[in-house]
Amino acid sequence: MGDLFQPTHLLILGVVVFLLFGAKRLPELGKGLGEGLKGFKEGIKGVSEPAAPAQPVQPVLQQQQTAAPAQPVATQQPVEQK
C-alpha cells in the first residue's frame, strides 16, 4: 500500500486524466481545485482562531431609547365632583 505513489503510477494517472478531460479542461480544473483548497485553508484558519467577543446588548438598547423622541408625560388633575 505504501508503494501507491510511485513516479510511474503518477505518470500513468496523469495520462489517464489528460485523456479523460482533454487539454482545454485541465487548466479550468486546476484553477477550480486551487480556489477550493484556498477556501478550505481559510475556513480551517477561521475555525482555529478565537471569535471576537460580542458587543454588549445594553449600549444598543440605550441608543434605541435615546433615538426615539421623548413624548411629554400627561399628568391627570384630580376631578372635582359636585
List keywords for this structure.
mainly alpha
Question: How would you characterize this protein structure?
Answer:
This protein has a domain at 1-47. The chain contains 2 helices and no strands. Helix content is 63%, strand content 0%. The protein is rod-shaped and about 110 Å long. The longest helix is centred in the middle third of the chain and has 42 residues, at 7-48. The protein is mainly α.
Would you kindly provide a brief summary of this structure?
This protein is mostly helical. It has helices spanning 7-48, 58-67.
Figure out the total of helices: 2
Note the overall shape. rod-shaped
Mean pLDDT: 75
Strand % is: under 5%
Number of strands: 0
Spell out the helices and strands N to C.
HH
Secondary-structure-derived class: mainly alpha
User: Alpha-carbon distance between the termini?
Assistant: 107 Å
Uncertain spans, ≥5 residues at pLDDT below 50? none
If you compute it from the alpha carbons, what radius of gyration comes out, rounded to the nearest whole angstrom? Answer: 34 Å
The biggest sheet, with number of strands, parallel, antiparallel or mixed sense and barrel status, is: none
Helix amount: 55-70%
